[in-house]
């Protein structure tokens, strides 16, 4: 076993930044869904799924960040790999809010593009970290 640390500092910082950004993302997206439901004719059968998917995404974010952080700090590939798998689900949900939700505003595009960028960067760093732990 190597005496030097394999855990990724940039990845750990990114988990932290992502956690804070996600709270902002969640509140902003929630506020916009409420705003859209007031301003636009938002059919009720579309409002519920949009809200449900946002809450599912928020619930996924907790184990995603926890497992990623834990896996990185303990230098174990399994939790990090699981976090990577959950990230795929989060990416799909983010793309939903970017492209397929009932009303997509410019703010939605900016919020989701930034989220997808951080997910992408995080995923690359996870793969690098997993490769380092496995080798």
From TrEMBL:
Pfam families, A to Z: Transmemb_17
GO biological process: non-motile cilium assembly
GO cellular component, one term: membrane
Superkingdom assignment: Eukaryota
Membrane topology per record: Multi-pass membrane protein
Annotated compartments: Cell projection, Cilium; Membrane
Spans through the membrane: 13-35, 78-99, 111-134
Alphabetic keyword roster: Cell projection, Membrane, Transmembrane, Transmembrane helix
Protein name according to UniProt: TMM80 protein
Native source organism of the sequence: Dromas ardeola
């Amino acid at each position: 076993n190597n005496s030097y640390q394999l855990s990724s500092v940039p990845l750990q910082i990114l988990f932290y930044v992502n956690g804070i950004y996600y709270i902002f993302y969640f509140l902003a997206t929630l506020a916009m869904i409420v705003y859209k439901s007031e301003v636009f004719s938002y059919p009720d059968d579309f409002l519920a799924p949009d809200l449900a998917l946002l809450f599912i995404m928020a619930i996924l974010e907790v184990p995603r960040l926890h497992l990623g952080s834990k896996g990185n700090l303990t230098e174990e590939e399994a939790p990090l790999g699981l976090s990577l798998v959950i990230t795929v689900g989060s990416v799909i949900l983010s793309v939903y809010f970017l492209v397929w939700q009932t009303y997509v505003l410019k703010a939605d595009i900016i919020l989701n593009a930034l989220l997808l960028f951080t997910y992408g960067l995080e995923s690359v760093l996870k793969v690098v970290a997993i490769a380092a732990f496995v080798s």
